[in-house]
Amino acid sequence: MRASRIRRLSNCSERSSPRRKGRDVTKKFRFSLERMKSYKDSVLEREKGTLLRLRKERDRIQMKIEDLNNDFRNVNAELKAHTLRGISVVEMRSYRFQIENIHQQIKDLEVQLERMEERVELQLRIVVNASQEVAGLDKLKEKQLEEYNRLTAKEESETIEEFVSTRFVRERSLSQV
Fold first, then answer.
1. Is 10 part of any domain?
2. Structural domain of residue 169, as residue ranges?
3. Looking at the domain assignment, is residue 115 inside a domain?
4. Is residue 22 a part of any domain in this protein?
5. Distance between CA atoms of residues 99 and 69, nearest Å
6. Cα–Cα distances in angstroms (integers) from residue 92 to residues 80, 83, 96, in the given order
7. Residue 149 within any structural domain of the chain
8. Is-contact 51 119, C-beta < 8 A?
9. What's the confidence (pLDDT) of residue 14?
10. If residue 96 lies in a helix (H) or strand (E), which one and from where to where?
């Protein structure tokens, strides 16, 4: 409700009302830091995009590790099955080489995953900070809008009061004539 009211008030056209005491009451609401807020919003969106890309990369690394773990289990199971039936030394070395190779790939990916986790964590902090900055500007905008609405209501009340009193004086002077 409050957001729709803000949009309605900030998008409304200028009101026609007389100038009073050097102030123009007809101005529509304009947030003084709108350009800053727009910039901060774009920074936030860019940082969220970066965070999303980093998380996808982290997930891709995790999937590779899972695939290699499955490969490790499969090769190990094959080795055990062939060992029970009896295999040659060459075949045994081949299986051992595959197992060692998979194991090394997993270790390398785990190092990459750890680095990626650190990058994701850092980027998450950046996104949180950017979100807090935008939220602070949103709160400030809301306060400025409330002040604008309060002043507008006060000035409209004064205008109505002035109109009523002028009408009353005019009717009184006409009745005396």
1. no
2. 49-176
3. yes
4. no
5. 10
6. 10, 8, 6
7. yes
8. no
9. 38
10. helix 89-176
pLDDT at 102: 97
The span from the CA of 112 to the CA of 60, in Å, is 11
**Token pair of 87, please?**
């295999």
53-56: long-range contacts at Cβ-Cβ below 8 A with a sequence spacing of 24 or more? 54/116, 54/119, 54/120, 54/123, 55/120
Structural contact between residues 14 and 28, judged by C-beta atoms closer than 8 angstroms: yes
pLDDT at 177: 64
| Arithmetic mean of pLDDT over the chain | 84
Total domains present in the chain:
1
Token pair belonging to 20: 């009073």
What gap in Å lies between CA 63 and CA 177, rounded to an integer? 95
Contact 40, 51 (CB under 8 A): no
- Stretches where the chain sits below pLDDT 50 are 1-23, 25
Task: Spell out a b/e string for 27-61, using b for 16 or more CB atoms within 10 Å of the CB, else e.
Answer: eebebeeeeebeebeebbeebeeebeebeeebeeb
pLDDT at residue 72, as a whole number: 95
Which residue reads 């690394």 in tokens?
61
What local confidence, expressed as pLDDT, does residue 26 receive? Answer: 58
